[in-house]
Amino acid sequence: MIRRLLITVGVLSLTVIRLAWAEPLPTAAPEEVGMSSERLARIGDMIRKGVDKGEIPGAVVLVARHGKIAYFESIGMRDTTKDAPLDKDAIFRIYSMTKPFTSVAAMMLVEEGVITLADPISKYLPAFANMEVGVETFDPASGKTVFKRVPAERPITVQDLLRHTAGFVYGIFGTTGVHQAYKDVDMDILDMSPEEFDKRLASMPLLNQPGTTWEYGHSTDVLGRVVEAASGMTLGEFFEKRITGPLGLDDTAFWVAPEKQDRIAEPIPNSDPGVPLGYLDITKKPSIDAGGQGLASTVGDYARFAQMMLNGGELDGTRILGRKTVKFMASDHVGDLKHGPRFLPGPGYTFGLGFGVRTDDGLAVVPGSPGEYYWAGYGGTYFWIDPKEDLIAVYMMQSITQRNYYRLLFKTMVLQALVDEG
């Protein structure tokens, strides 16, 4: 009996070890999925040059097509101060790549009839019931700009949060009176309780009337609070129970447990001078599960999430969303609405429900397919999903000042490696 028990424990231990080192998706030779091994190798060459020049510490990259990994490499250093090499299972601060997770969580509740996109958010978060909009006008008598607050013409809806038309901003990314109001009250939300976040943000003026203008800001943080209020769980609990747990995303959470902290990828010290924010401390539990910015994750975990979306909401027999919901999320939800100069999806793109969505073959500064959707993170992470090419790609590093340059290079290097007809 004891011998049988020991054998069982040994088998289970080996199984755990295998699972810990398992590839996130099946693998294939690049040529089996219509890609060139020689051309994919250019990705590694490009990253090594950046590492050798001291521009970036390193990166983990993954490309999968037709559900199979064609390229998965880790290059450079996880921590340059410790001379620690970067491994494929390195954990990164993914910042705004948290937003797609929160958006999926909200749409799961929509599918279940718990919330609707037309609901005013004050139905779940009463603090946001009577919002005001900041208005700046020129006073010819004084020759100065006058700032005042006027009532919002309609409530903020759940759809507004998902598509960034609520009127919320990030205070660090502008110079208007509204942006200054955010700076004056310190909207560094990771130091707040959820209740304090609601109270403080609701007291801020909106930049635009709800539903009129695309503006990037705290909308998805508020969406996370809606998910919490509607589900009765913290956002982290919802993710673990409904998304990360079922999909086997063991390294995606709002903080990194002590036994995993030796896998955290770090930036090169002092490599990002003059940036408005430092890097998140993901070694401690935050006061709030920030749905717009708080997750840590790995390339492997994010690839499974992206593949689930590419599959129409299902992976390995686990369905997270219905296929029509996924298509709806990856559609244009901005249309002819106004947007400010910082329209982050960029030329050739619009915005859906939680993702930037490509509308044209051209206009953008990199190749791509109409219908692809993507997002990126402040600390240097990036992914996209291309239904036309049946492809996902995930890129993670930790460099704020170099993030845009290397994202564009990575996407170019991936797409030039396609050699079949799709």
Question: What's the end-to-end separation, in Å?
Answer: 56 Å
- Helix vs. strand class: alpha+beta
Low-pLDDT windows of residues: 1-20
> Order of SSEs, N→C?
HHEEEEHEEHHHEHHEHEEHEEEEEEH
- What's the gyration radius in Å? 22 Å
Mean pLDDT: 92
List the helices and strands and how they pair.
Layout: H1 2-21, H2 37-52, E1 58-65, E2 68-79, E3 84-85, E4 92-93, H3 99-111, E5 132-139, E6 144-151, H4 158-163, H5 177-185, H6 194-202, E7 213-214, H7 219-231, H8 235-247, E8 296-297, H9 299-310, E9 314-315, E10 318-319, H10 323-329, E11 338-339, E12 349-351, E13 356-358, E14 373-376, E15 382-386, E16 391-396, H11 403-415
Parallel strand pairs: 7-11
Antiparallel strand pairs: 1-2, 1-16, 2-3, 4-8, 5-6, 9-10, 12-13, 13-14, 14-15, 15-16
Helix pairs in contact: 2-11, 3-7
Account of the protein in words:
- By secondary structure, the protein is α+β, with helices and mostly antiparallel strands.
- It contains eleven helices and 16 strands.
- The strands form five sheets. Strands 3-2-1-16-15-14-13-12 form an eight-stranded antiparallel β-sheet, sandwiched between helices. It has a two-stranded antiparallel ribbon with strand order 4-8. A two-stranded antiparallel sheet has the order 5-6.
- The longest helix is centred in the first third of the chain and has 20 residues, at 2-21.
- The protein is globular, with a radius of gyration of 22 Å.
- The N and C termini lie far apart (56 Å).
- The relative contact order is 0.17.
